[in-house]
Amino acid sequence: MYRMASRARKRPTREETRRRLFEGAETVFAEQGIGGASVEAIAEAAGFTRGAFYSNFASKDELIAAMLADHVEQTVHRNLELLARNRRPEEFMAALRSVDRGAQDPLGRSPLLHVELLLHAARAAEGRHELAAFLGARRRLIVDIIEGAQLTANFHDYLDTDELASMLLAMEDGFRLHQLIDPATTPEDSFLRSLAVLQQVFERSSS
């Protein structure tokens, strides 16, 4: 009876199971591509059966939507936590540079996977609503950061917060794509460098 209780305690929680499925999907997507990846291969890479996959997700597309939502949740939590501790723009930028965005976040450590999942969702008409929600959540996070850290505090002379957030979101994804195409001329921190330059430009224009 003791052994049975011990085994029961070791059974992964639903959250642990989903996390392992995300990690397994990252591995299989990298090896086989999203289109070629099967549910069976993802489950096996995660150390589970096909049944365990379907007890958590109805399909591969549902898994992808969950990975995108998880990425947003982790990104929002991580950045707002940084913002709470680093209100000054220069402090917040330094904190962003030092944080490990890939810890327990497959999309945070793999620009290729991030781009591929966006394209996969965009191609499927039924996935566009979820993709729009994903982009909207990222945009709202950028608005919170701009206002919370007073980044580009005097930009209102040029455009409103939502417009600026849309520009920065497109710039971040653009750099992510360029890094994949030409990493030699697109460092990993290209987006943060550009954000710092914009901050300086707005500060100088207001002085």
SSE inventory with pairings:
Layout: H1 2-10, H2 14-36, H3 39-46, H4 50-54, H5 60-85, H6 89-98, H7 106-109, H8 111-123, H9 128-148, H10 161-181, H11 190-206
- Outline, from the CA principal axes? elongated
Beta-strand content: under 5%
Largest sheet: none
DSSP helix fraction: over 70%
* CATH-defined fold name of the largest domain: Tetracycline Repressor, domain 2
Text of the CATH class of the largest domain: Mainly Alpha
* Tally of discrete structural domains: 2
| Category by helix and strand content | mainly alpha
Task: Explain this structure.
The chain is mostly helical and 207 residues long. The protein has two domains: 1-57, Homeodomain-like (Arc Repressor Mutant, subunit A); 60-206, Tetracycline Repressor, domain 2. It is built from eleven helices and no strands. Helix 2 packs across helix 3, helix 2 (14-36) crosses helix 8 (111-123) and helix 9 packs across helix 10.
